[in-house]
Design brief:
Elements (H helix, E strand, L loop, with lengths): L2 H26 L3 E6 L15 H4 L4 E3 L5 E3 L2 E6 L5 E6 L13 H13 L56 E8 L2 E6 L6 H5 L25 E7 L3 E6 L12 E6 L3 H10 L4 E2 L9 H8 L4 E6 L7 E6 L9 H9 L3 H7 L4 E4 L21 H10 L12 E2 L2 E2 L1 E7 L5 H13 L4 E7 L1 H10 L4 E6 L20 H12 L3 H17 L5 E5 L1 E6 L3 E2 L18 E2 L6 H4 L1
Parallel strand pairs: 1-10, 1-11, 17-18, 17-19
Antiparallel strand pairs: 2-3, 4-5, 5-7, 6-7, 8-9, 9-10, 11-21, 12-21, 13-19, 13-20, 14-20, 15-16, 22-23
Helix pairs in contact: 7-9, 12-13
Amino acid sequence: MNKTVIMVTAGILFAMALTACSKTESKDSPAELVIGVSQDFRTTDVFSHKGFNCLVFQTLVKTGAEGTIEPLLADSWEVNADGTSYTFHLNKKAVFSDGTPVTARQVKASFLYKQTKKRKRGPGRPAGAGPGGPPPAKPEGAGPPPGKGDDGLNKEYGVFDNQRYHLPQWFAFRSMDAIDDHTLRFTLSRPYTLFLSELATTHMYPVLKADDAEPVTGYIGTGPYRIDTFKRTQYMTLVRNEHFWQGKPAIDRIRLKVIPDAETRAIALEAGEIHMTGYDHFDKIPNESVLRLRALPNVTTHRMTSMDHPSISYIAINYKRPPFTDKEVRQAICLAIDRNPLDQVMSETGRSTHGPFPKDHPDCAPDIDPAPFDPGKARQLLATAGWSDSDQDGILEKDGQRLAIALCFNSFDPQYKTVAEIVQAQLKAVGIELKLQMMELGAHITVMRDGTYDLALWPMMRYHMFFYTGHPSWLNVYNSPDLDEAFTAYLHDGDAPLRLQALARTQQLIVGSRAFPLFFERYDVVAWNHAYLKDFEPQPLGWDLSMGIWKANLKAGSKNPSKAR
């Protein structure tokens, strides 16, 4: 037998073996959906800021596709006349993935666990930190009363580890009472406008059971999947919850594959190594990648704005740090920025806005006054403030100091660097030297927390936490007594028309401060292989846009990247 015959025969046998292996896998191996994600999962805080939360955990209520609050684990609730008492009636069919029923006592225990769970987030902010020094005194009545209540709720603000996410900390429960197995009552110290919408967010307030001996796989929820395996920096595997109380999930397994770089995730989808990407706020797809993926015959790209809270980013000026204490300098920076080039480079993935909300969002104030693009006026304001180009090098000086400032940002969003470079060129045109500082996320958090920045590019996760001293957050980047008064009315006034007026007032004050030269929205763009993933409908819900994935199907016989390697 010659070599050619041997090689052909061997090739046939090898192909037969592969086919047999493939048949065995398709018969014996569960169907798996592979999603490319940007971040690893913290073993100390697996439920925070991760789009998979809504697949493992659920909440008492949920945000519907139109932005309304709808039943979930609670099938009904009542609110007292002054908005300080919420009584929830749990769905008696709801069970955890271990088959045990959801009870009011377990819901209470899960919220207490969320409050007291230690997180490795670094030291607390030292006294005097933050933009320009210590924050002003809290407005009267803001924040929880001191001390610990009989129900075990810690009503004092915690250290930095715990102060950002804990349910009772700043709008202050007076009590959380399990009335019976299926009735839970929250009593607030005063009305809180966002109470229901925040309860509807799985990365903030999931209902769970936890086994601290298993820091990741020990988390048990009521969602359509449960955590099966976890390998740090590589992947997490979810398997179908056989006890899921809302129906049988069609997809057996979901593997979340960590691919930190946004462009690499897009290439992996294009190459068939993953089935989906862009499924939560942290997994943004670059604009040029969206254009390329959209042209592929087997890929669907779906763009949407979030109904619960838009994905807004901003440039903040450290207004308490010279030379930005001079409002004319801040005004000049705002006037120097042309939004049109920014809109062009974000054509498919975002748009500039005039303030903290897009103009077509129901919460957007109709009468805010953003600075127009007027570089000539910007130069005039700087000259009035004493800045001149005495050495004719194109950069202004005053009292021997160049107008050289820095903009810090991180790689959270793949468009940030492009935005920063455009702003850099526009400020140079009016005599301002802007140095770009791209940082790792941890370093950027430290700079923001300590207030040691000139300009910072940052995502706005929750509107009030950036501007209201009644919410003691290291993320607070601008505040004033008038703004505190407006936020207090918006968040806590019992009169709905007055709340809406106060919300508009907050936007007017923020934009009018000229401490924010740029706001822009980043769309949630989800991309998936529709030849493999069928009947998937993403939800416009920010953190929870993959909530309905358990209803989707995997096409039999299609390429499964986890089996193809």
